[in-house]
Design brief:
Blueprint: H1 2-49, H2 69-78, E1 86-90, H3 96-103, E2 109-114, H4 117-130, E3 136-140, E4 153-156, H5 160-173, E5 179-183, E6 194-198, E7 201-207, H6 214-222
Parallel strand pairs: 1-2, 1-4, 2-3, 4-5
Antiparallel strand pairs: 5-7, 6-7
Length: 223
């Protein structure tokens, strides 16, 4: 009889243990299902709280490299800027060319265009320090979408392919006789009227002709 009693007790213990394990397994399964079901909700919240598209401005086409002061000065001399000129600097960086044009050469108006907001901020600060904000302004714009038709002088420090891309816009917007000066890079098939060297750096000069040269007309009309 004692043996039978002991066996009954063992059976009870084993049964209770099995039930406990089953209960734990079921709880784990319920918890796992809950986590799986909760995941989509979390993702949905993240998607709703974080917009998938945000407005961004186009990144600059060139890495900013400032033009040395002696090159700035020679560019303005080559262009023969004077108090009667309106100068536009396309890709104006820290604003040194427009500021110098007003400070040293007395142009009546100078405008810098740059797509980089940091450069525009820096240029405006430099203009304030130079006390030329009455004649100098800076526009945060894509120069390929800008209107610079009032310019009598245009200065550039871009890249060869950007100069060529800009060429048709210069022909379309600028009046005959408008002077163009580029630091370091030419205009492809549009040959410069003057080339100068300053401390190993090259300056190119053109004027807008009354008629577009025949070899440039096709590229202008297709741009």
């Amino acid at each position: 009889m004692k043996l039978q009693a002991i066996l009954k007790v063992l059976l009870v213990i084993v049964s209770v243990g099995s039930l406990t394990l089953v209960g734990c397994t079921q709880q784990q399964q319920v918890s796992s299902q809950g986590e799986v079901e909760a995941s989509p909700s979390t993702i949905e919240v993240q998607q709703k709280s974080t917009p998938t598209t945000q407005p961004t401005e186009r990144t600059p086409d060139v890495v900013y490299v400032p033009t040395p002061p002696e090159v700035v000065d020679r560019m303005l001399k080559v262009a023969k800027v004077s108090k009667n000129d309106i100068l536009y600097d396309l890709g104006s960086g820290d604003g040194r060319i427009p500021i110098t044009a007003v400070q040293k050469y007395g142009v009546k108006k100078a405008v810098g265009i740059d797509i980089d907001s940091q450069r525009i901020k820096e240029a405006n600060e430099n203009a304030k320090k130079a006390k030329v904000t009455d004649k100098v302004k800076f526009l945060q714009q894509d120069l390929f979408k800008s209107d610079f038709s009032e310019a009598t002088v245009v200065t550039l420090y871009l890249l060869p392919e950007l100069n060529v891309k800009l060429r048709s816009q210069l022909f379309q917007q600028l009046k005959p006789g408008t002077r163009i000066v580029s630091h370091a890079f030419d205009m492809g098939e549009w040959k410069p009227e003057k080339v100068e060297q300053v401390d190993g750096r090259t300056i190119y000069f053109w004027t807008i002709p009354k008629q577009i040269p025949a070899n440039l007309q096709q590229s202008t009309s297709s741009s």
